[in-house]
Every structure is written in C-alpha cells, then in structure tokens.
Design goal:
The longest helix is centred in the middle third of the chain and has 109 residues. The protein has 11 helices and 18 strands. Helix content is 39%, strand content 20%. The protein is an alpha+beta fold. It folds into 3 domains: 232 residues, Rossmann fold (3-Layer(aba) Sandwich), CATH 3.40.50.1460; 84 residues; 155 residues, no CATH class.
Length: 537
C-alpha cells in the first residue's frame, strides 16, 4: 500500500483511492514494461495524495479480490482511479484484462480465465462516489489470435458512466506500442503530465495524446470517453472536494461543448486516416492490375514465340502416331503369322510322332503347347514352347510359366541311384520357349541326342535317343551293361525318357525317374530308375 508523504490540497475534503495493476510475466508472451509502468504510476499517484493499492504479475483470483476491495473503499466517497497495464483482449465486443497464468485455448475461455473490464466500471458506478477515472494501457497485440475465431485487435470502446472518464492507450480496435524504454509509450507521456499542476484531467490526457501522436507519426492515437461535467485537477490548482466540485457544474455546458468539439476533431482525424488507408489500398489494387496486365502481355508474347515450335511438335506427334498405328498393324500380322506357324508346327509334330510310333512302336510322351520338332538327323538342340491348358490341371499363368522357365535356366547334371552315367543337360529359356543341349563326356554325348523336351502338368520330360550300332540288343534294366554295350558300339537304337518332378524339388535338386520307352513293354512292366537333376552351374 502506497500513501502520500504529504497530502496535496486536492485531497483536503475527499478521499482519493487508486488500484494499480501491471502484468508482465506471461508464460509464452511476456511483456517488457507493464510491471515497471504500474510501479511508476503508483508512486506518482501516491505523491498526488492517492491511497494506492499496487499489484504486479497477479493471477485471476488476486485481481478479483483487489477489484472487490477497491469497490468497497470507493463507497466512502471521493475520487477513484483504476490503472491497468498488460495484455487485454476484445472478444465479441467485450474487453477482458488477462491475468498471469490464464489458459486461453479458445475465445470462450476469456469469460472464465480473464477479468471483464466492464466489471471494474460496474464496481465504480455501484460505489456512488463523486468521480472515477479508468486508464487502460492494454491495447497491445492479442497473444491468443490463433486460438480465437472472431477476435478483433485492440479494445472495444466502452461508454463512461456518469461522472467518470475512461482513457485508452490508443483508439478503439487499434494496437498500442509496448515501448522500447523502461515504460510503455503511453504511460511514459502519462507520467510526464500526471503531476502538472493547474490543468484539468482532460488537458492531462490531451497532452498525452499529442506526445504519443508526435512520436508515432500519428500511428497511435490515445482515446478517452468522458461523462465529467466539471473540472478535476490531479495536481491541484483549483479547490477540490465535494463542495468545490459541485460549484464547477456551472461550466458543464461549456465543458460538454469542448468535449464534443474534441471528439469531432478526433473523428475527422480518424476519417482522414481512413481516407488515406483507402487511397493506399486503391493504389495497391492499381499496381496489382498493372502487374496482371504486364504478366498477360508477357504470356501472350511467349505464346506467340512458341507457336512455331508447338506446330512442329504437333506435326512430329502426328508422324509418330502414324508410325505407331503401322507398327500395331505389323504386330497383329506377326501374331497371326505366328499362330498359323504354331498350328502348322503342331500338325507336323503330330505327324512325326505318328510316323515314329508306326516305325519303332514307341509310346508318345505327352507334351504341352506346340510340339517339339524332331529332326531326321541328330540335333544338338531342341526347344519347348509355352505349355497349353491341360484337361486336368488349370492353365498356368504367364508370369508363373516364365518364372519356372527362368528357374530351370543353367546346366544340370543327371544322376541315377544305379550309377548310370548320363550327359549333362544345358537349359536356356527364350521368351516362352525352353531350349536344351547335351553336354559332358564326349563318349556319351556323341552317341546320344536330345530328341524331346516338354513341360506337362508342371513336370519336365526329357527324351534322349542312343544312335543305332551293330550288336545284340541289351535290356535297359541292366544300366551298366547297357552303357558298356553302347560305348562298344554293340547296341541298337533305344529311347530313354527322364521325368523331372519340379514340384518335389528340395534344396535346388529335382527328383527324376528314367525308363526305356521304345521296347513296347506296358508302362507297369517298365523298370524305372530313380535319380536327380543337380545344378552344375
């Protein structure tokens, strides 16, 4: 609590009470000067005879308690002065003073987390004292704009109750500067004029307004709303008190006229500012239109410059489109020719198999897709086309078939459990066709040829023919004797078929069964030799 060391003549017959609040220590949006402003204003008011209650960096409950105590003191009569410096916000036309620690998640939180400035005016009006002054240096940038949907900058105008004056650091809906020195800009000029003797309160605020406008280049215009009907001198110069104040009522009409003139001048000034603003906006719009026109001209010139190039590109695209259609026709013709060739190949294969069966009485090996053409002379390489649909199995997808053929690519060593030496089989996919050749020991390879290579129901069928030589026939059921006789040139032509079971592959090895298929024996009487296909490289 601050009190004057020596009462001024202005407080001789009436009390003077002041509540001064300054909030600076906001968590996310601290302010530099409000706490300093409050302390300096409190000291100045104490020197002018006010009984001062000073509060700095206070929360909601402390502010509410201080305002309640302030209202009780004013019931004693006299003069009341409320000063606030800190964050203030306007929400839906109402002004709120922001305490320290306010949690403002949305604009609806203002009425629960902040102090309604109208409540202060209400407390003063309810007290029924002679004169009240409210000074709000709280028009700084709203720190909660992002959380609010319809918040305006600055504070809204409040009508002063009878016998009171409300002063703002700047005009309604405008933002005030926090200042770069010890005090805020508005409070700095308030302190310069507050203790000037011999001038009424309206003149004090007029001088404050002139100083702020000059320093900011008229960007900040302090504002007052007053319903005073007499003269009041903060620093003396005229007798104060209830009787003296009543005597000054004779000049009420003159004062009211002066106030109206002052407000009119301010309105004209604000209207001038608004006109300047509209002019600047018009000039800005003209510049934007000029820029758009220049951009349009540049775009037109660029389009004209690019027109020949675009014409050439269109011509080239037309040529490419013609070529594409031509290639599509040729591709269709090639596909038709290929289908026709495949049909002819199937017919030829069927004929060859029929002839071979009639000549040697051998059983045909079921093949999938276009047949393998077996040449009259021994051929080093045969191929198998993509498998066709089986009457039992579902047709293989193209990507599955390609993957199987790709896994078979490489050189395989054919091994049997009986130790029968067989040549190595080199497989190479080409599109949807599998090509094969025999490799290995020349003594074996030169006497044998690959005559059949087919895929059926996911199994690989390999047929190999031993060229006919002089000598007695040897049964394949004795593989070692058969091979010896082959190498000695004493064995007639025989046909071996080895079937690789791809689905039973384990650790990369493919199980196989080999049997002789040209001796006319029923299938259930043939001896099958087990073995495996082992990848050589």
């Amino acid at each position: 609590m601050l009190t004057a060391a020596q009462a001024s003549p202005a407080s001789a017959d009436a009390g003077r009470y002041a509540l001064v609040i300054g909030n600076s220590a906001y968590g996310d949006k601290p302010l530099k000067n409000p706490a300093n402003d409050a302390r300096d204003v409190a000291l100045a008011l104490a020197n002018l005879g006010f009984e001062v209650q000073l509060k700095t960096d206070v929360g909601l409950r402390a502010m509410e308690e201080a305002i309640r105590d302030f209202g009780l003191k004013l019931k004693r009569g006299g003069v009341g002065l409320f000063y606030y410096a800190g964050h203030g916000v306007q929400v839906q036309g109402l002004n709120y003073l922001v305490p320290i620690g306010a949690r403002m998640g949305s604009e609806s939180d203002a009425k629960y987390e902040c102090v309604d400035a109208g409540r202060v005016l209400g407390k003063m009006e309810d007290a029924g004292n002679e004169l009240n002054i409210v000074i709000l240096d709280a028009c700084r940038n709203n720190p909660f704009t992002r959380a609010f949907r319809s918040v305006d900058q600055g504070l809204a105008r409040m009508d002063a109750p009878t016998g009171s004056l409300v002063a703002y650091a700047t005009a309604p809906n405008s933002v005030a500067s926090d200042g770069s020195g010890k005090n805020g800009l508005y409070t700095k000029y308030l302190l310069d004029n507050l203790a000037t003797p011999g001038i009424p309160i309206e003149e004090v605020f007029k001088r404050v307004r002139i100083g702020v406008m000059m320093e900011t280049g008229k960007k900040q215009v302090p504002w007052e709303s007053s319903s005073l009907a007499g003269y009041f001198y903060l620093a003396g110069g005229q007798p104060q008190g209830t009787a003296a104040y009543a005597a000054s009522q004779v000049n009420a009409a003159q004062i009211a006229q002066q106030q109206r003139q002052q407000e009119q001048r301010l309105k004209e000034y604000l209207a001038g500012l608004e006109a300047e603003k509209r002019q600047v906006e018009q000039e800005k719009a003209d510049l934007v239109r000029l820029r758009q026109q220049l951009d349009a001209d540049e775009a037109r010139k660029l389009k004209e410059a690019q027109a020949p190039q675009e014409a050439r590109l269109k011509e080239q695209l037309a040529i490419l489109e013609t070529e594409r259609k031509k290639l599509e026709r040729e591709r269709a013709e090639l596909a038709a020719a290929r289908a026709k060739a495949e049909q002819a190949q199937k017919a030829a294969q069927a004929q060859l198999e029929k002839q071979a069966a009639a000549q040697v009485g051998k059983v045909q090996v079921a093949s999938v897709g276009p047949g393998v053409v077996v040449p009259s002379a021994p051929a080093p390489q045969v191929s198998v086309s993509a498998p066709a649909q089986s009457a039992v199995a579902k047709p293989a997808r193209a990507d599955d078939r390609a993957a199987v053929l790709q896994r078979l690519a490489g050189t395989w060593r054919l091994e049997t459990d009986t130790g029968l030496p067989l040549p190595m089989l080199a497989l190479k996919p080409g599109g949807d066709t599998l090509y094969g050749t025999l490799e290995g020991d020349p003594r074996v390879v030169n006497r044998m040829s690959l005559t059949g290579l087919a895929m059926e129901d996911g199994n690989l069928h390999v047929r190999m023919s031993v060229q006919p030589l002089r000598g007695n026939a040897v049964d394949l059921n004795d593989p070692r004797r058969f091979l010896r006789e082959v190498l000695r040139g004493q064995q007639r032509d025989v046909v071996l078929e080895c079937v690789g079971y791809l689905r039973a592959a384990e650790n990369g090895d493919i199980p196989i069964f080999c049997e002789r298929v040209d001796d006319g024996r029923p299938q259930d009487q043939r001896r099958r030799v087990a073995g495996r296909m082992v990848r050589a490289w």
